[in-house]
Amino acid sequence: MLALQGAFAAHASIIESLGVATIEVRTKEQLQTVDALVMPGGESTTMSMLLERSGMLDPLRYRLNDGLAVLGTCAGMILLAVDVLDGRADQHSLGAIDLTVRRNGYGRQIASFEADLDIVGIDEPFHAVFIRAPVVERAGPGVEVLAMVDGQPVLCREGAVTVAAFHPELAGDDRLHRSWLADAGLISI
Amino acid sequence: MLKGGVVMDVVNPDQAKIAEDAGAVAVMALERVPSDIRRDGGVSRMSDPEMIQGIQTTVSIPVMAKARIGHFGEAQILQALDVDYIDESEVLTPADEAHHIDKWAFTVPFVCGATNLGEALRRISEGACLIRSKGEAGTGNVVEAVRHLRSIMGDIRKIGQADSAELFDWAKQLQAPLPLVQEIAETGELPVPMFCAGGIATPADASMVMQLGAQSVFVGSGIFKSDEPAKMASAIVEAATHFRDPDILVKVSTGLGDAMKGLEIATLETKLAERGW
Q: Residue B58's closest chain A neighbor by CA?
């Protein structure tokens, strides 16, 4: 769990319940020890600054380049994208998935919403919670779109990087984490 | 999504910018920081909508604003302004001596203060979706925040040990709805996130309250009443992340200039934490 800020605890309890051990990552030393990484929801501007101040930006870019399996949700999606619109000028992009995302694209807190998603590879609909969520404005040719809301991608995958505009950790449903962990080779379904 | 972060009180767009630059997860827009409210006296109300809008256009992080306890009229205005959260706050002068706002009547989320678990559960039953321990705002003295946090976390731990019959008595003692008490017994935590406020003035204060179980911190006067607000703000942000890492805390606590002066609780004329019930 990238634990600089945000909703990492809820991800951790789902992943632990699937029999995979988790640690909280706040330093570059801790980052070197993980087999896969969750980048949780929170404030992307805050996390971007803390990544820089803790000297983790380059080590993280290196590991992403090296094929580290990552699940980025909400703010995590923003940090992992190639292009960010409506972010701060000094906000860092890790450029790990070929997306253009608009920060808070659906509006302020009050515009938060829920939706039942049809997800590629998951049988029954998945109840998704969107909180000040980013909007995907462009998905590159190498990006697989796994779920959409109103014609806009909300769950995408490119290589080992999976990103969601919503908060799968709040659904009381472990199917998305289960399928990500299986793709990462950490559990077998 | 505010967990593991710092919410900072700001009174104008310039301060909001400093807060965002330092890594705040949200700002709280208010007319005067609590230490000035304490000094100036008079009735303290919701902020001028123009000031709130100025802050909303300046920063991209969530903007919270305060309404007086029980003042649903102010809350309706704040909701229409599209603030991200409303803080029904004891720092402002209460508008109703018997009733808090019926927060279920709103779509905007509310944060409320609490000095103990019963108060927290009553606010949750009224629809609050975030609780902050009250502490004593505007003092720069963390002792009350610690008292309230320890009281809330301690009772949660005790309820976790109680048997099913004892939960009825807990609900009675706390003057709180039984289903919420039963939920705590089952999950071992509050049904909503629990932050800490009131008197946090240094990175060390933030680190301590996070270790005591707060999931984030609110810092009011502590930043803009310190010698070097920008430095203090970013130091407290780092402390909220690395709260268990003393080596990093040494680094972030160094060279910050003076923290706000602070007040002894026994000398206070008004205890803000006693507002609300």
A: A88
